[in-house]
Give the backbone structure.
Amino acid sequence: MSRVMPYITRNTVFWVVLFALTWLLSRNSFALYKALDARWIIRFPKKYELPLEGWISTFLDWLVNTANFWLFTFRDLTRAIAVVIEVPYQVLRNLLIEGFQTGLGEQAVQLAPSMSWIAVIAVVVAVGHYARNWALAGLVGLCFLYLAVFGQWESAMITLASVLVAVPIGAVGGLALGILAYRMPWFDRALRPVLDLMQTVPVFAYLVPILILFGFGPVSALVATIIYAMPPMVRVTILALRAVPAEIVEAGRMAGCTARQITWKVLVPSATPTLMVGVNQVIMLTLNMVIIASMIGAGGLGFDVLSSLRRLDIGGGIEAGLAIVVMAIALDRASQAFSERKYSEPRSGNVLQRHPWSGTVVLVVLGTFILGRFVPAVQTYPEALTITTSPFWSAAMEWVNVNFFDTFEAIKTVLLKGLLLPVKKFFAGIPWGWGIIAVGLIAWRVNGWRLGVMAALLMAFIAASGLWAKAMVTIYLCGVSVLLATLIGIPLGIWAAERPRAGRVILGLMDTLQTLPSFVYLIPVVMLFRVGDFSAMIAVILYALAPAVRYAAHGLREVPEQLVEAGQMAGCTPGQLLWRVKLPLATPQILLGLNQTIMLALSMLVITALVGTRDLGQEVYIALTKANAGQGIVAGLSVAFIAIIADRIVNALAEGQKRRLGI
Amino acid sequence: MKRLSLAVATLLATAPAFAEDSSDPIKLTLHDWSGQLITTTLMGEVLKKAGNNIEYVQADYIAQFAGLKTGDLHLAMELWETTAREAMDEAFATGNVVSFGETGMQAIEEWWYPAYMEERCPGLPDWQALNDCASEFATAETAPMGRYLGGPVTWGGFDDERVEALGMDFEVVHAGTDAALFAELEAAYQRQDPIVLWVYAPHWAPAKYDGKFVEFPAYSSECYNDPSVGINPDAAYDCGKPRGPIWKAGWVGLADKWPSAAKTIENFKITNEDMGAMVADVDLNGKSVDEVVAAWMTENKDTWSGWIAK
């Protein structure tokens, strides 16, 4: 006891003093500047600002217009990549919706029609049945039937084509990078900052260069999507491979496996359940990018959402948004089922007897192909039979708006005055010089001087780019949102893990929230809470809640059965079991969830710039609307640096917790 | 099926009238607001009648410039003086994008209020009457000042300066996009709550909601540039906003590859009234863009056939 107490005290003293000092400086920075007549205290002096924006713009200009590798230019290279991606995409698009044509534009002549809606549904039902059973087949089939009945078919097929191209590239690429990182520690170290940048530099920041390099249209959208959706797969792969018990690897070695065999026959199969969490994330993030992708020419459901909301057709937006969710559910469940698929005895007999379902599907596809020539309803779902719930949503929104606005306004005022404004004032007041030192000190305390120096340098970069004030608004908005998201999310995750039935509903809801394009709720949120920080916060919480819940639930479920039993035998009540055994053991996973929540919150801040905030997200968005690549990238990097510092600190906390627990 | 029959019909019905135009499709950009879809579809249909091959491509308003510069995209039909000026200047400066002249439509931008506010603020639409009842527009965050919802900061507009110069008791809050802007209007209109915000025309909002633009002292370039001009002798921007044309612009190679089409594009002109009526038909009466454009073309055959270069 006597040895523990001084440690706790010293630690506590450090945090209390640091906070008190920061608070004092924050409160008095303005008075200090007036008293000393030193404006540099609150504003980074303009003449020392780095002219990074200009440098980056010049570099990109060079890269795009003159960079040359003897035989070909950089742009030739990227355009070649674009062609490689475009071929499978175009084939899928022709197959699913456009039909095969010859000629260009309006003079095109159709050679063969696309697959009919009946044929597509037959295929997905068969895939569902193959992956697991009739229940899944029914679910997947219903999902696709929804798309047809609600009149979303054409857009949905365009979106499906891009998902079917982006997800395999993202998943396989992520797996490959993850394996490399697992096998080569130096690669891991080099990769981590790149991953952070890929996930946190807002897509808007590099949209302009990508468009120039990859050409205008769906391919650029696919490239941006892959960049954004791949990092979780890499992260999960590394985590999953490391979690494979050493005994299994040993067994593989003793059986005489080569390094390659160990990877593919031992590590990857044992890690598959966790790897599928990664694939799940790739699918979800891909569908998340559907909106931004549609801004640069991908079309599909994302475009429907965007144009509906510009007309304030909330119902139309919700329907198209739900179509994205429905598609996500179908793809997600099917991919999960594949990972858990049991090996079954091959059937005997002739071709049709051995493959009854494939045979049936081929028959349906051919049958509808021929029938579709004569009966248009077979080829395309008849428009007269589509239903729409659009008027219902608009009326519901109006009803809520008219009847509950005052209640919302009251809640909002309380939260604004009690939480948001004081926190904003605190962060806005911190003088940049002290801010850099304080962040460095926090990082040093958590993980030693290396991280401390790095964190201080990254913060200095932000200050030297003249973005300090906006960065503080970013940290404040993100911090408040993450705090509230965690407070809501972790209890939900615990609930989901403890009560499987409630868990299914909660996790389903989280999937919905994460795949429902944020635009869909951004507009209703603005209608109810007006333009401002509060609306932005609500949108961020809705979006960033999912990982907090999911990782908490996952962490609790992964607690080894023996330890839970040991706890039970020691006579723990269920409450004690949760607090003393399960939660401490799940802390590393929960912290990983916190990490992801922060990342998602930061990425969402760029979207909330569309509502109207004055943070780094707005800076990125302004850069995009002015097509200023340099400004966009500098602001994007600043967002990324905040994310990286947060990530390192949270990770160090998780590692520390693991060491303490001995796992 | 519809696509197929359309394609065949086009192929059969139109023998290329101008041999010198390339048969490659001219790519026109589509954005996400109805007015632009109508303008672009109208241009596309007229070009089709002239025997050109065309293709519509979805593109972001600003991001499209990257495509126009490289020739991936060929023609943008609605570039507003008020919102695309900087992007246009930058693109023109590269020499890869050129202007195809005005569309004939004039962009109007100004402070706007719903008609039910006239009861609560007698004297509207005069700006001084608006200022006298600024407290009506106050919210928890802005009280005691009134709240004016401005456009995205990137739109410019000098509203902060205007409030300062005219000594108005308003605080300017900037929306991030026009979707957010009109979402607030829709919500306030449903509740019949006070609101004054940035509205522009041609747009569906002035057609859907009953209201008026605030009348500020008339705009002049001197008022913007010379502090001594206007009501406030010490400040510029003590007047209303300018009105500006909506431009057409495209890839520099368009005129070489499709010379006749380029002339047709330059000749394209349409009025605010015609466009406003078509936008309302689409957004408020639920008609499709194709339907509305086809109806306009039947009624105004002389107008559009005059655009096609002889």
About this structure: Chain B has two domains: 2-103+244-307, 108-225. Strands of chain B lie at 26-30, 54-58, 75-80, 97-114, 146-150, 170-174, 196-201, 211-213, 244-251. The longest strand of chain B covers residues 97-114.
